[in-house]
Amino acid sequence: MLGSSFIQKRIIIITLLLMLVVLAITLWMRHYFFPLMILMLILSMVPFFCRFEKKEVNAEEIVIIAVLAAIAAVSRIPFSALPSVQPSSFVIIASGLVFGPQVGFMVGTTSALASNFFLGQGPWTLFQMFAWGIMGLTAGLLQNTRWMDHLLGQSVFGFTWGFIFGWFMNLWFILVLFESITWEFFLGAYAASFYFDLAHALSNVFFITLFLGQWQKILGRIKIKYGILH
Amino acid sequence: MSSGFSSLHPALTFTYFVVIIVLPMLFMHPVYLSSILLATVILNILLDKGEGLLKNIKFYLLMAGVIMVFNPLFNQQGSTTLFYFRDRPVTLEASLYGVLFALLMLSILLAFLAYTRVVTANRFLFLFASAAPKTAFNITVVLRFIPLMKRRLQEITSVQQAIGGKPSKSTSQKAREGMEILNILVTWSLEAALQTAISMRARGYGLGKRSSAVIYPFENRDFYWLVFLCLTGGASMLGAFLGHGQYQVYPSLGSFGPVISWHYLTVLLFLATPIYIEGKELLQWHFIRSKI
């Protein structure tokens, strides 16, 4: 009985995948690039969530991830006096660096999704989830490398992600217009967002230079003290 | 406390919103797009008397306006030149395309606004708890922590002020101060969180399948509406792939053709479903009251 239900599950998954492939090809052929992009975004995040679902996750791990995600979400508040300075990205990078790629990804995606329950969902939710998720993931992947060992490497990482995040978030607005987009429009939109992206990148560098060491200590202590999330 | 469209099973309302958010992306037709926009406006008004609409309308109109203005300025496709802007032709076709895109953007944003009203966090998590229990649980905990963190932030700030923190002037000083507050918040919350975890384990976290605090039963009525929504929504999307709801803009404007087709009527039926349910309930309430 166990075997047959396993095969049944496999068949369902394979059928679903085939249907999705057909849907994706149809969307591509018909130039529906925006729905296609959304489909791709969801599909590319599914494996990471599946991995999280399969793992044994104990209560401490869930709660730590949730605390970090909630802090990333509310971290805008103490900086409300300073527009476009917000340490959400910094919190996500720090979580990834200390606790690894899986936690970095979960902190990034859940903080984006949860904070939008308060601020309002929109097409941007998925893009934010993806961008912050991958930000945490890459920070986690570079966890023990020599690159992230010193301040210069960390700052370059933060600076680069400030721009990648902004460039990626521009896509949701631009892809809607895809059918009639020209290079001029594209470059114009990216030039218009340059100031915001630069502010994000610089504030990342600011937070990383001054506070990343401190945060690594705080988070690392929790990790050792309770022996979690190795 | 929910009534009308919101009281349907979350699976239904969620599906409805997925379809209504995808639909405008599939149609490039002024009549179709304006119908969808009109439906989302009515739905928003019925749901919360237009409160959310009034609050966000400026931002939404700005976004739509940017698209409407910039498309003809940056795009020279089309054969009918209206006027020249800095030696570049501004065409009628590109202007109309800009309007269509603005309609598209507005209907998506308004559909999301109604979505936030109807598919609340509770319903969303109920829906995904069976497919991804750990992720859904994680989000539930985050949703509980966000207000808690806000309260803690207030507490830390007022204590800092009480022990003599002066409001600082320069940007980097402000940022430093903000970060000090955040440092306190993270140490405090992480320690407290581990107590939460111990308490969770003591109450049997992870011993069995997770149960849901709120249960939304799937009623007979839900089944009928599900069939109806699947049929009309599916036909609407299929029709788009078969070439319905497309209006030729480039190189020159095409003719409207017969707008009233089986496909347009199906789309209308789909769009009208929540409006019918909400409206019916509203009228019922109205008449009950007037009898008393």
Walk me through what this model shows.
The complex is a heterodimer of chains A (about 230) and B (about 290). Helix content of chain A is about 80%, strand content about 0%. Chain A has about 230 residues and is mainly alpha-helical. Chain A has helices at about 1-30, 35-55, 60-75, 90-100, 100-120, 125-140, 150-175, 185-190, 195-225. Chain A has 9 helices and no strands. The two termini of chain A are about 35 Å apart. With about 290 residues, chain B is mostly helical. Chain B folds into 2 domains: about 5-125 and about 215-290, no CATH class; about 145-200, no CATH class. Chain B has a two-stranded antiparallel ribbon. Chain B is globular and about 70 Å long. The two termini of chain B are about 25 Å apart. Classes of the chains: A mainly alpha (about 230), B mainly alpha (about 290).
Summarize the model shown.
The complex is a heterodimer of chains A (about 230) and B (about 290). Chain A has helices at about 1-30, 35-55, 60-75, 90-100, 100-120, 125-140, 150-175, 185-190, 195-225.
SSE map:
The complex is a heterodimer of chains A (230) and B (292).
Chain A: H1 2-29, H2 33-54, H3 59-74, H4 88-99, H5 101-119, H6 124-141, H7 151-176, H8 183-192, H9 194-226
Helix pairs in contact in A: 3-4, 3-5, 4-5, 4-6, 4-9, 5-6, 6-7, 7-9
Chain B: H1 10-26, H2 30-48, H3 51-74, E1 81-85, E2 88-91, H4 92-118, H5 121-128, H6 133-162, H7 171-202, H8 220-241, H9 262-291
Antiparallel strand pairs in B: 1-2
Helix pairs in contact in B: 1-4, 1-8, 2-4, 2-9, 3-4, 5-6, 6-7, 8-9
Mean pLDDT of chain B: 85
Low-confidence runs of chain A? none
Q: Per CATH, which architecture of the largest domain in chain A?
A: Orthogonal Bundle
Name of the CATH first level of the largest domain in chain A: Mainly Alpha
Task: Name the helix and strand elements of chain A from N-terminus to C-terminus, one letter apiece.
Answer: HHHHHHHHH
Structural class of chain A: mainly alpha
| Cα-atom radius of gyration of chain B | 26 Å
What is the ordering of alpha helices and beta strands of chain B?
Answer: HHHEEHHHHHH
Largest sheet of chain A: none
Whole-number radius of gyration of chain A?
A: 20 Å
Tell me the count of domains of chain B: 2
Strand content bin of chain A: under 5%
Helix content of chain B: over 70%
> What is the number of strand segments of chain B?
2
